[in-house]
Design brief:
9 strands; 3-stranded antiparallel β-sheet; JmjC_dom; 14% strand; alpha+beta; Jelly Rolls; 2 domains; 4-stranded antiparallel β-sheet; JmjC domain-containing protein
Length: 300
């Protein structure tokens, strides 16, 4: 049996035999994203004292056959009973919607990693670096990796939005679901970046550095840009623009700086980019969309 709680979205691919899947609806029980204090088997006698309100939980039950994929939405508990010997492949995803959950997970795991080695702080030449390396080993990424992801995700989204506004024209922005999706992504990225700057243990420079021109020439970033345009275009049934067009737009932003050296720089670059878009297109669009009114997104 497998029981896991993931803050990012999860996909499970079954390669052999049969499993029974139970998905517990988000919000019906308190989330413990670390899965350190949760019900092990929902079909056992569950203590109402330890898990108050569990009897009100709502779940869906299904069978997963060979070569089938099950999509587990963000924040949903899931429990698996393998009826036979089987092999499963799991992938965890995160996006603008659940970035805050990923940050919470990193923060909690960082504090644990730090506590485990606190007794060697005085004899360690690079205690913080060791904490970050242990965090990456335990969680799959550290704060520097998270910063690189945020900055690249921002660049891919801002370039896509530039192209979308130019190709759709201002007359079509109000009906562009893709543009609104991109706006939501940008607002979410800024909110998380701003939150990072306020965290004492992330303050300063922990390998936070991004060369914008180097990033634009990176094949991995090219692939990310293509994927963002292709996937959002497919979701919203809108045409995607070419990467060359996006790269041409990026040059417009480089009079700010070709380097982002820390989180504070990153937040300033986000605000600069939005102001640049506002000047290039229409201030009315950005006022209505919320990009020029960041506090609208602070509590979402």
């Amino acid at each position: 049996m497998e029981l896991s709680v993931m803050s990012p979205t999860t996909q499970h691919y079954r390669t052999e035999h049969l499993s029974i899947y139970v998905l517990i609806y988000k919000g019906t029980i308190t989330r413990d994203l670390g899965c350190k204090n949760c019900v092990y088997d929902i079909f056992d006698d569950v203590s109402e004292t330890n898990f108050p309100g569990f009897k009100k939980a709502i779940w869906l039950e299904c069978s997963q056959e060979q070569n089938e994929i099950i999509f587990v939405p963000s924040g949903w508990y899931h429990q698996v009973h393998n009826l036979e010997d089987t092999i499963s492949i799991n992938h965890n995803w995160f996006n603008a919607y659940n970035l805050s959950w990923v940050l919470d997970l990193l923060s909690r795991d960082y504090k644990e990693a730090k506590e485990y080695i606190e007794d060697i702080r005085d004899i360690c030449d690079d205690f913080e670096g060791l904490c970050q390396r242990n965090l990456a080993a335990n969680t799959g990424m550290n704060f520097s990796d998270f910063f690189i992801f945020l900055s690249r995700f921002f660049l891919a989204n801002i370039l896509q939005l530039c192209c979308q506004l130019r190709e759709d024209g201002m007359s079509g922005w109000s009906s562009s679901k893709m543009a609104k999706h991109l706006v939501f992504n940008l607002a979410s990225i800024r909110r998380i970046a701003l939150k990072l700057t306020s965290m004492d243990f992330v303050a300063g420079n922990h390998g936070f550095f991004l060369d914008l021109m180097e990033t634009l020439d990176d094949p991995n970033f090219l692939e990310l840009c293509l994927d963002v345009g292709r996937i959002y275009g497919k979701i919203h049934e809108q045409q995607n623009c070419s990467f060359d067009t996006k790269k041409a737009w990026m040059v417009e932003f480089l009079d700010y700086s070709s380097h982002i050296r820390n989180l504070e720089d990153f937040v300033k670059f986000i605000d600069y980019s939005v102001a640049k878009l506002s000047a290039t297109f229409s201030e009315e669009f950005f006022l209505v969309s919320g990009l020029n009114n960041w506090p609208l997104f602070e509590d979402q």
